[in-house]
């Protein structure tokens, strides 16, 4: 007995054949067509337990058919597949009631798993839909890494779940937060952003929760905080890792109780906001260091979302460059082209400042160079070592984690050997380079006290002594002040 009836719509005969075979092997009855009209006829006749459809069909776009299907049969699960692979494709699929969106090419095992999950879900859980306005795309890229982000965002749009966005500086964390708001269920409410790193520590609580007149020196009138400003909408807490501990405690209480009091106030105020937090730090390390509350971390990290650095999705560089050139042209700057040699150099670059650095580069290219086509030598001049002193590159270096710094060092080291490999024993050479300054800093911090240095490092005292000898480190014991 078949596990269910599947309707497949795709104008590519080869794809239909592959899908038919994979679903039939999994025990499903399958009917397939290359036309949206045929799919609609089958659905309107009550056929099929699930629909799998491509977006672009020869007679009609699937996004025009989906609302009719959901209106007629709201419980019918629909899986949308597409080779367009943009953020808006994923969002429109979600908005029009699709159960899942799959960018082509996709894994057949994953498809069969999604089909089984869709058919086993309780009925009566249809999603609400709304039409997207305009064609502006807030997120750009067709890489596999970005496809995962798009799919996660599409699933989060109809929810109010708290999201923690992590990623290096310049990866677009606020863009993702704004997309979650602008295309989510709170899109009619306000989007309020606050950067914890940019506010003096003694003003953070007032900024978040507001204050009453006379609450402190200079408080000449009542002031609404960001929670009040974001009521009914989304509050984006950027650089959450820089929030001081006392403010963390108050924020945790708000998340637990759903209410807060203003600074100097006594009456609790109910709050109704969606929280999205972001950080470029590893908060688990901050927890170990005692500078971030573990219970707050778990409250905020309901749905973790990691944005990949640009070096992990170099195939998106051409799309991003075209997008930024179009954007700056709308602002009045000349539109430029990039030749293949220049594009290849841009794709090989490591982008320490990530997408923000790329956007700033495009603006410079559009504003400063008279040529209509940007060539390789121009890119070399912009990306030479002196260019790494740009503000975004400096900010990226200041914020980067140790692993990122080591990766940059190793990339330069391997690059020095061209097509050859470094001499054997690399692992121990690198460890020795790291161990030396680490142990040296620990000894300096403890004023040469090896017992305290061993405790600081988490090493046995005899092990530390051996490493000091092996590394030929000098130890100078100085008295405590």
From TrEMBL:
Gene3D superfamilies in UniProt: 1.10.8.60, 3.40.50.2300, Homeodomain-like, P-loop containing nucleotide triphosphate hydrolases
Entry superkingdom: Bacteria
First-listed, main subcellular location of the protein, grouped into a coarse class: cytoplasm
PROSITE patterns xref list: RESPONSE_REGULATORY, SIGMA54_INTERACT_1, SIGMA54_INTERACT_2, SIGMA54_INTERACT_3, SIGMA54_INTERACT_4
Gene Ontology terms: biological process: regulation of DNA-templated transcription; regulation of nitrogen utilization
A GO molecular-function descriptor: sequence-specific DNA binding
GO cellular component term, pick one: cytoplasm
Function: Member of the two-component regulatory system NtrB/NtrC, which controls expression of the nitrogen-regulated (ntr) genes in response to nitrogen limitation. Phosphorylated NtrC binds directly to DNA and stimulates the formation of open promoter-sigma54-RNA polymerase complexes.
PANTHER family reported for this sequence: DNA-BINDING TRANSCRIPTIONAL REGULATOR NTRC (PTHR32071:SF95), TRANSCRIPTIONAL REGULATORY PROTEIN (PTHR32071)
Protein name: DNA-binding transcriptional regulator NtrC
Native species: Chelatococcus asaccharovorans
